[in-house]
Design goal:
- By secondary structure, this protein is an alpha+beta fold.
- The chain has one domain.
- It contains 2 helices and 4 strands.
- The chain has a 4-stranded antiparallel β-sheet, with no helix packed on it.
- A hairpin with a 6-residue loop joins strand 3 and strand 4 (71-73).
- The longest helix has 17 residues, at 2-18.
- The protein is globular and about 45 Å long.
- It starts with a helix and ends with a helix.
- The structure holds zinc ion (3 copies).
- The site of one zinc ion has 7 residues, from loops.
- One zinc ion (ZN) binds at residues 65, 67-68, 70, 90, 92, 94.
Amino acid sequence: MESTDRENAKKLFEKYRKQRDGIRNCPEMASICLICGSIHVIAKEGDSGMLICRNCGFSWYRYECSACGRTVDGRDPKNPGCRKCGMRICTCGRCNCGLDISATI
Ligand SMILES: [Zn+2]
Ligand SMILES: [Zn+2]
Ligand SMILES: [Zn+2]
């Protein structure tokens, strides 16, 4: 079973290394590091909404948007950094800090 998981993780890793768009919609990518491909990913202690790779130490944001419930992933180009709080902006245009870029366009 575990080897199948690893094979699948490797495939996803290779796919999203080349094409980062869509990482947010792939639930498996919550536990795959995009830097080293490791699946040893845990929630970062004391930093809510952040995950950290236990293998290489890379950490990134991945959490649910409080406005629409969709997944926000800091590695996805469709989730740019928020200029107000530094976290990530959801595809709905909102950030959990209250910033709404859809209203300012
Ligand atoms: Zn890693
Ligand atoms: Zn949203
Ligand atoms: Zn923000």
